[in-house]
Every structure is written in C-alpha cells, then in structure tokens.
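Before going further, learn to read the protein records used in this course. A complete example follows; check for yourself that the lines match position by position.
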Amino acid sequence: MPKILVTGGAGYIGSVTAHFLKRRNYEVVIVDDLSRGHEHNVRGLPFYKLHLAETGALADVISREHVDAVIHFAAHSMVGESTQKPELYFLNNAGGSASLLSAMIQANVKRLVFSSTAAVYGTPGMVPIPEDLPFDPVNPYGESKVLVEKMLKWMDRCNGLRSIALRYFNACGSDPVSGLGEEHDPETHLIPLLIGAVVTGKPMTIFGDDYETPDGTCLRDYIHVTDLAEAHVVAIEKLLAGGGSEMFNVGTGAGHSVLEVLRAVEKVTGRKVPHEIGPRRAGDPAVLVANSDKLKKTLGWKPKLPEIEDIVATAWQFENKRLMRQG
C-alpha cells in the first residue's frame, strides 16, 4: 500500500485522519512540531518532531521514508488569534506550506491533499456556498489559506505537483474507533466549549446574538471529524490514481445556529448549558454552509454522521472518557 506523510498529524483532524488511513491499510508517517498537537495522538505510528520550516530535514524524511503522497494539516487555525497576530499566521501557515512544497519537490513527491477552509470565502454572497465563489476572506486565517491554495495552483503549472484542496467547515465530534477527539488549548470550538460549560458549571460566552439569522446567532455547517477524515482519504486515492488538481467543499449542507447546537448539547447531556451573550467576535461571518455536491458526485463521498445530535453524542462520550482517565 502507498505510504502517506501526514503533517500536523498529532492534532485533532490530522490524528483522526492518520488512524483512519491505518484502518484502510495505508502506511502512515507523522510530522508535527507538537506546538499545538499531542504526542499521545500518534502512539503506534512513525513520528518525527519537526517544524515545517525545517525544509532540509523534511525533505530527508520524505525521501528516507519513501513517501508516496502528503496530506497537509499543519497550521494555526484560530480566527480570533489570527486577527491579533496576523504575521504569525502568514509565517506559519503560508511560510510553512512553502517550505513543505519545497521539500516535496526536492524529494520528487508530487501528490498533496491540503487542509483548506470555508474561511477562504469570507462573507459569501450565496448559501450554500459553491466552490466557484471568488476568494474574499475576512480574517488573516482565511487569507493564509488562500495564499496556500494560490501556491498550489502555481506548483501544478510549474512543477506538475497535483493537489486537492478540501475547504471544510466546522469539524467536530470524536472518532469512536481511535477514541480521538478535540483537545485544543485554549479551546475555541463550539461543541467542546458547550460541553465544558456543562461539566464545570462556568458560563461560556456566545459571541453575538444580533446577526441576520433566525435566532441572531451564527449559522455553521458542522461536519463530523470521521466523515472529514474519509474525505481526505478519497481525495488522496484520487490523486494516487492519476487525478488532477481540484478543490472541494466538505460539509453536510445543513446549517445550525449556536443556540441550536446549545440545545442539542442540553438534549444529549440532559443538563442545562450555562451561557452568556457577549459581543461579536472579530472576523466571524454570519452564515457558512457548504454545497458539497461536487465532492459527492466526483469522489462518491457523503457524510455518515450528518445529524447534529449524533455528532454531539460522540463529543460527549469522548469528554466522559477523558474525565475518567484524569480520575
């Protein structure tokens, strides 16, 4: 079976995808600097602690391990932080990706699946969002991903490096097979924040209730992390079979407001979620919902866990197991 290098493979989505690849009998190699990932997520897998800026060392790993293709997750991904430290996001996300692409060319590996984002669209003029909407990011995080997608276009044209960019929406839930879930520090994702409020009794802040949405809170497309992992696998299979460069949205096509997700957490846990309303967060569009028809038609992918309560249930199971481990 082909060998896949997973950058950022100690992080949330990267680790779930790495273990999903193993279940599909692929060989897997992980690169992560552990600045935001967790080493326990990659136990049992070949692992190199490297920053993507270490171009030469990265090229050596790709060559020595006889890597066939790369799935690239390694990036900072907090919207709020990106508005406070934009230079960090351009240096790490765009600069690190440029270093990775250089290492791949040095090692003569020319197949890459890139973890992109719906943030490249900014505040979209159409919902659900199709892939042919122009780039219009409203925060530096989204801009950093646009820069990488543009790099990939030129790498294809100039070097024959074929890539698939997956623009996904709100990854969430936990993978029941690997037992992996969200462990960000600090945590910024909605479902674990809501569950954390249930567990600790400390109110969480909802950022804005005055958006032009049915209940005034932001609408998002929540995609289960295992469904997202499968999308990366079918994308890499497309490239390994000789497919050309492409981009796809990955989502369920259904939008849920913050308050709808809050009610789902209350139903799953059987407890009230303590919360308070705060001001809008910088760089947050009101509505982000995917049109994923292209991915479904082209690669035969479809989400297996599209219901928000089912997604929340897996996150709640993960949190209970994590609390048991902590004693």
User: Anything to note?
Assistant: The chain has two domains: 3-171+223-250, 190-220+253-325.
